[in-house]
Design a protein that fits this description.
By secondary structure, the chain is α+β, with helices and mostly antiparallel strands. The chain contains 16 helices and 47 strands. A hairpin with a 2-residue loop joins β19 (291-297) and β20. The structure holds ligand BES and manganese (II) ion (MN).
């Protein structure tokens, strides 16, 4: 029977299949498109669910259940993992069984979790603390326990096993039962009658340790509470249903147990409310196929069978309504939520059906078997969750299209996520003019988003074909009177660094399609700087809705930051009237020092980007024909010139370059010591001593540096050519009190004077491409104080200890930071939203969902409270 395959622990076998790349279905069995859809009366439009997130484990996912806040998943190696439905962070992982966790069942208002497994045990857990309440087992060898349910009314758990039995345990009566003997515990039995082998005879190696819980938690099934041969096959699945009134079988309002077996039969069992005992009341036969999965909606029972079939019975009339062969392999999972039914098969395909069992959509959800599923409603969305032997849990938004597009029902975080996904889809690359139209569209989308959430918004044109600046203002209602007229300016940028879109190299996901994986959002610009900009937009928007905004929050979101903020100074000066006065400036465009400790950034280095070109008046030449010592080559001149910039150990040799660098004060020294102490024992830093860490941070943050980014040559660049011209891109990071204009002059005149001593007839050309002044904020001012309070509150939620942010500086540059301070006479503060591992400017740029949501919460607090200071 092929139905054996996926459910036996031997076959939850780890698939070495990588995470599906863009859900590519190549090389996999493909579920045929549905034929029945057309029969059922009128074509139903295909509505593809959207993948909200995917979390990866290191083994197959065999069971799933979902509460209002959490996803519980059971693994092949006996763990139960718990993920947050909001942030997709792993909140817990426990070694729950010595065998595959085959079924999970939440009961008692989601406070208790039942797990059944290949170790012949049913464990009962506190669903929040994961305290093991009971461990239930049978003295018989039952083999794998495929299914478990619990009746809260009767306080009785029922389970179905591989030895064809159904057994139950009445927790009300547990204290009346004799205490079990330890030797009867399944882990003490040496020879298991059942040790299910999959095709090929592989068995799953069981963990060696035999951990038996203390006997006070052990509960042994009364031999009277067993129905042997409940099926003529394995008992694969169970449902506990509340009977509608007026049913002939069972009592009104009572419960009934349904079981599905490898014998192709669904049995309906009445339950004696006094004893919890079950009696077979009726059998429904599905023919030769095993019943692998069941779901019920009202009186309609949907059964997933072996070989791709789905049977539907109306329990009211006990009639078989339909039998469809839609999937091409075993239908291992069925789930119901509202009016939707989901089926998932061993081919990796899921299907969504409506109540009339018309087909709505079909999509590949896993690159292996779908072994488990669950469904729930959350913030107006229909959430479908699948687990498979590709080691993934996938979370889908399966809402109907019309509903999916309406933002009104969504939670605020869902709306933020949805908007970010849209914003990331615009290829707003500022360095390449061919993306100018994408940039304009991105800017227009942002402008509309500001308006939708209650701001006034316009695009400020930049001169010379530069990307526009989005200017927006959320008007404070000034209820606190004294705050009226105050303004916080949030500065950010919507432009991004280019990202390679060719498959196979570089990115794991598509860079301009926001993709959720393991608690992170992947996409170009998600951290630098689209995510933080939207966190700020939603923070202000929500405060307006809550009528909690006193002051004005103004936004300048530019589209040229990655290109040195070309045109920004001009545009701001031209629009001075519109922009008006500013009291504080906030930025959110950098990263924490590591991945764990929240930080505040009080300094950025400045930068000078220059291009140095040496060219001759001759064309590209053949080196064999023309190469000679008397023929001065531009590339050799350039390399010799670049060599004058630094000593062989990397010290910058421009005369006077380092003189203005501010000396380290004792107070500053202390700040660095504090940071060093906070991180010295962390794994990322453990290879360095405290003194080395301090040195390392100081040289990145408060000392200047020089980089040669690129050296390139003219012509076909093959190894027989003397290039006509050679060029280098270089940059200098500068720090207080180096003066931008002085350093620029020093650089140019030093290169010129060194070059003149070469006596070459090739021409030297130096251009300054862009420049930024360094910025040093005051970590003692009100803006930083307010930020610190907010960071501590938001990141300490749920912790006993309050997390104080680290005050850090950054080696990177934001050209406008110092300019805005000077132009508006207002101090700036900087909230880093991302983690050190965000990969800004690199492949696989990402932002952790928790960081996005918490950054919004922090900015909300600051927008509200800073003006009240
Ligand atoms: N977000 C960065 C600035 C940054 C970089 C902060 C590294 C912290 C660490 C910003 O978007 C950026 O990339 N700036 C450029 C500016 C340049 C193009 C003038 C930079 O630092 O190279
Ligand atoms: Mn950047």
């Amino acid at each position: 029977m092929s139905g054996l395959r996926p459910l036996s622990p031997a076959n939850g076998g780890r698939a070495d299949t990588p995470l599906p790349r863009f859900l590519d279905n190549s090389g996999l069995p493909i579920d045929p498109p549905v034929r029945e859809a057309r029969e059922g009366g009128g074509a139903v439009e295909e509505e593809m669910p959207t993948l909200l997130h995917r979390v990866k484990h290191d083994g197959s996912i065999l069971s799933l259940c979902v509460s209002d806040e959490l996803i519980y998943a059971g693994s092949q190696s006996g763990e139960i993992m718990v993920w947050s439905l909001e942030t997709f962070q792993l909140v817990r992982s426990v070694q729950a069984h010595q065998g595959s966790v085959l079924c999970l069942y939440l009961a008692d208002h989601q406070s208790v979790l039942f797990s059944s497994a290949g170790d012949a045990i049913i464990n009962v857990w506190d669903a929040k603390t994961f305290e093991n309440l009971y461990s239930i087992y049978s003295t018989f060898d039952v083999g794998d326990v495929f299914c478990v349910v619990y009746s809260s009314a009767l306080q009785t758990t029922y389970f179905g096993a591989q030895n064809t039995s159904i057994q139950w345990y009445d927790l009300k009566a547990k204290d009346l039962r004799p205490r079990p003997t330890l030797t009867s515990h399944p882990s003490h039995r040496n020879h298991r009658f059942f040790d299910s082998k999959g095709p090929g005879g592989r068995t799953t190696p069981r963990p060696a340790s035999k951990v038996v819980p203390p006997s006070s938690r052990l509960l042994e099934v009364d031999p009277e509470n067993i129905v042997q041969y409940a099926h003529y096959g394995y008992v694969y699945c169970m449902l506990l249903i509340t009977l509608p009134s007026g049913w002939e079988i069972g009592g009104d309002g009572g419960e009934m147990l349904l079981s599905g077996g490898g014998d192709g039969v669904v049995k309906l069992w009445t339950i004696n409310p006094a004893t919890s005992a079950i009696t077979s009341a009726m059998s429904l036969s599905a023919g030769d196929s095993g019943v692998l999965s069941m779901a019920i909606n009202d009186t309609m029972l949907y059964c997933g069978l072996t070989d791709g079939e789905i049977c539907i019975w109306d329990l009211d009339t006990r009639q078989l309504i339909r039998s469809l062969r839609t999937h091409c392999e075993d239908v291992l999972t069925m789930a119901v939520m509202g009016n939707c039914i989901f089926s998932g098969s061993a081919s990796g395909y899921s299907r969504k059906w409506n109540q009339r069992f018309e087909h709505m959509s079909r999509w590949q959800s896993h690159s292996g078997l779908i072994l488990a599923s669950a469904a729930t409603k959350r913030h107006g969305r229909l959430i479908y969750i699948t687990g498979g032997n590709d080691n993934c849990v996938a979370i889908w938004d399966a809402s109907a299209l019309a509903q999916a597009e309406s933002q009104t029902l969504r939670s605020q975080n869902d709306q933020l996520l949805c908007s970010l996904s849209k914003l990331v889809s615009f290829r707003t690359v500022s360095s390449d003019p061919s993306y100018a139209e994408d940039c304009r569209r991105g800017a227009t989308y942002l402008k509309q988003l500001f308006k939708r959430y209650g701001a006034t918004a316009t695009l400020l044109p930049s001169e010379g074909g530069r990307n526009p600046i989005v200017h927006a203002r959320f008007g404070g209602c000034g209820t606190k009177g004294r705050n009226k007229g105050k303004t916080i300016l949030f500065y950010g940028h919507y432009d991004v660094i280019p990202a390679s879109e060719s498959a196979g190299a570089g990115w794991q996901t598509r860079p301009f399609e926001l993709t959720g994986m393991n608690g992170y959002l992947y996409g170009r610009g998600v951290s630098d700087n689209k995510g933080p900009c939207l966190a700020a937009l939603f923070a202000a928007g929500e405060l307006v809705q809550e009528q909690e905004l006193d002051a004005d929050i103004m936004f300048l979101i530019e589209g040229e930051e990655e290109s040195g903020s070309r045109g920004f100074v001009d545009a701001v000066r031209r629009n001075k009237e519109l922009i008006g006065d500013v009291d504080w400036i906030l930025l959110a465009n950098s990263y924490w020092l590591d991945d764990d400790v929240p930080c505040l950034t009080y300094g950025l280095r400045g930068v000078i980007h220059a291009t140095v070109v040496v060219e001759s008046d001759k064309p590209d030449l053949h080196s064999g024909v023309e190469g000679s010592r008397l023929n001065r080559e531009p590339t050799i001149d350039l390399v010799n010139l670049l060599a004058k910039l630094t000593s062989s150990d990397g010290k910058v040799l421009i005369p006077g370059f380092s003189e203005p660098v501010r000396p380290v004060t004792p107070a500053e020294e202390e700040m660095y010591t504090a940071i060093t102490n906070a991180i010295v024992n962390k794994p990322d830093w453990s290879h360095l001593t405290a003194a080395q860490i301090k040195d390392h941070l100081m040289s990145k943050w408060r000392f200047p540096s020089l980089t040669i980014h690129k050296v390139s040559v003219s012509g076909p660049s093959n190894a027989t050519i003397i290039p006509r011209a050679a060029s280098a891109s270089i940059s200098l990071r500068i720090v207080p009190d180096q003066e931008l204009s002085v350093i620029k002059d020093q650089l140019v005149s030093y290169l010129r004077s060194e070059y003149s001593s070469f006596n070459s007839n090739n021409k030297l050309n130096i251009t300054i491409d862009h420049e930024a002044e360094p910025w040093l904020g005051d970590p003692e001012n009100d803006a930083f104080r307010t930020l610190e309070e907010a960071v501590m509150d938001v990141w300490s939620e749920g912790n006993e200890e309050r997390v104080r942010p680290l005050y850090i500086r950054e080696g990177g540059s934001i050209p406008t930071a110092r300019f805005l301070e000077k132009e508006f006479g207002a101090p700036a503060a900087h909230l880093p939203c991302g983690q050190a591992s965000d990969q800004a400017h690199l492949d696989d740029e990402r932002l952790r969902l928790v960081n996005l949501y918490k950054s919004k919460a922090i900015l909300k607090r600051v927008f509200k409270e800073l003006p009240r200071k």
